[in-house]
Amino acid sequence: LNDRVGVFQLFSEMEEGCRQHASASGITLPPTFSVTRAFKGMAAEGTVNAPLLRAARVLRRNGFKTCILTNNWVDDSAGRLFTATLMNLLRRHFDLVIESCRLGARKPDPEIYAYALDALQAKPQEVILLDDIGENLKPAQEMGMATVLVRDTETVLKELEELSGVQARRGEEPLPTACDPSNVTHGYVPIRPGVQLHFVEMGHGPVVCLCHGFPESWLSWRYQIPALADAGFRVIALEMKGYGESTAPPGSQPPSPQGIPQAVLVGHDWGGAVVWNMALFYPERVRAVASLNTPYRPADPSVDIVEKMKTYPAFDYQFYFQEPGVAEAELEKDIGRTLKVLIRSTRREVGVGLRVDLGAVPLVAGGLLVGFPETPPASQILHGPELRYYIQRFEKSGFSGPLNWYRNMRPNWRWALSAKDRKITMPALMVTAGKDVVLHPRMSRGMEEWIPQLHREHIEECGHWTQMERPAALNRILVEWLEGLPPDTPLPKISRL
User: Fold this and answer.
1) Which of 59, 120, 152, 257 could pair with 64 in a Cys bridge, judged by C-beta atoms 3.0 to 4.6 Å apart?
2) Which of 359-382 are b and which e, b meaning 16 or more Cβ less than 10 Å from the residue's Cβ?
3) Residue 69's beta-bridge partner residues?
4) At what angle do helices 35-45 and 7-24 cross, to 10 degrees?
């Protein structure tokens, strides 16, 4: 078969060939005979093998390069969106995807294996090839590769473990695939004169907008962005105002996706406060709303917000942040140290038992980080290239913009008072974390009074940094909730101008 032709042409040629052969053989084909329909049915029933995809993630995290070799055609059919979506998914999860229709060679042609070895810079003896067709394995075996014939998933995983020496079936759940800053689409949108937002996006489908907190980056959603894109959503992760390449004059209001009539908003920490207020003040723009760790509470007119905050010892650090220049000097002195001290998991960290939440950091004379090691051990949830990216973003923006979120308490409170009796009526999700000492689950009690459609989820063994500390559990929660949302209401036709 010629894989250089398009699928539409291929199906037409195959169908015509079948009809000619049937006619010459005296066979009467049924009126409903259709090669195109048969292939559509196969595509509709096709699924990605999730255990093998997880095994590929485990191998990558253990230093293996992963590659997909496909025998496929250029897809110009009516169902080509399926092919595009599948190829995008594979490219997110594997180091390399080689399509026969682009290369001009297909399995079992030895040329495609030689091309893969060269692209991966690997020797045959370093490669394990999996395929469900034995004929495709023979050239690889002759070249010196180890091979596995795919029959059933459990047997394949067992053989893969024996050949690789990596446990692909047991142990802790592997981290989800993370997106790389160099491999996502970056964009910028002006939201008013002199103010722009930087964002990244991935995927195709209904829009889900992610809003991070302090002191973070859009990259704190690195494990959620590919997972939500894989689930069929267009994911937009904002770099919040004052961070990195997003500007923020004092007193600016929450962002909303420009040019997008409505989106699902998901926030964490300060991002949670933003999405609750978006749902409150701009409900027409919000299809549904979800918050990680940050509960919703209506503004209380009976007591000044600053006085109320002083009654919560866990929020003492926020008052240290009030004087411009003071916290900046401490946090910007050594940004790497700052981030390694603050962004840590609740699991016992290697080296020393650092306190991991802002509310657990004792405020002593000299600042927030006094008493912590000058060279803290690496954080289990923010290290390597991700930590370096965070450092670069804060070197660019400094900490003034991020800290200004804490310096706007009273204006925010006065604004919220104008909607103190309003309820949040769209579908909502509250995810609490059992080990978050600042935003403790008990703070979310009674939210149902103000959010009638509230759905709750809880992750007990998780601290403040939910997206990074328990990404697989969070991804399951978000995808299940998003997939369970009621369908969009059909838009009325608007006259074309």
Assistant:
1) 59
2) bebeeeeebbbeebeeebeebbbb
3) 98
4) 130
Question: How many Cα neighbours within 13 Å face the side chain of 130?
Answer: 20
d(CA 436, CA 439): 6
Q: Which amino acid is at 436?
A: D
**Mind giving me the DSSP string for 326-388?**
HHHHHHHHTHHHHHHHHS--SSPPSSS----SGGGS--BTTBSSTTS-SSPPPPSSS-HHHHH
* Pair of tokens at residue 298: 């209506």
- Count CA within 13 A, CB hemisphere, residue 327: 21
Rounded CA gap, 398 and 331, in Å? 9
In the numeric block, which tokens belong to residue 255?
A: 């962002």
Contacts of 253 (CB under 8 A, 6+ apart): none
CA 128 to centroid of chain Cα atoms: 29
CB 77 within 8 A of CB 211: no
Residue 207, H or E segment: strand 207-211
CA nearest to 241, candidates 250, 232, 233: 250
pLDDT band at 354 (very low <50, low <70, confident <90, very high): very low
User: Could you read off the pLDDT of 301-333 as tens digits, one per residue?
Assistant: 888 888 888 888 788 888 899 999 999 999 999
Q: Helices 50-61 & 80-93, crossing angle to 10 degrees?
A: 30
Catalytic positions:
269, 406, 464
Q: Report H helices in 383-454.
A: 384-397, 400-404, 409-417
Nearest to 243 by CA among 49, 439, 352, 396: 396
Bridge partners of 68? 97
Q: 229 pLDDT exceeds 60?
A: yes
Q: 274 phi and psi, to 5 degrees?
A: -65, -50
Tokens of 446: 């009674």
User: For 415-468, what is each residue's pLDDT tens digit?
Assistant: 989 988 899 999 999 999 999 989 999 999 999 999 999 999 999 999 999 999
| Cβ-contact 230, 53 below 8 angstroms | no
Note the pLDDT tens digit of each residue in 98-144: 999 888 898 999 999 999 999 999 999 999 999 999 999 999 999 99
The CB-based long-range contact list for 87-90 (8 Å cut-off, 24+ gap) reads 88/203, 88/204, 88/229, 89/48, 89/229, 89/230
Helices 153-164 and 50-61 pack at an angle, to 10 degrees, of 10
Task: Find out whether 146 and 129 touch, Cβ atoms under 8 Å.
Answer: yes
| Two structure tokens written together for 337 | 């140290």
Contact 332, 387 (CB under 8 A): no
Within 10 angstroms of residue 395's Cβ, the number of other Cβ atoms is 11
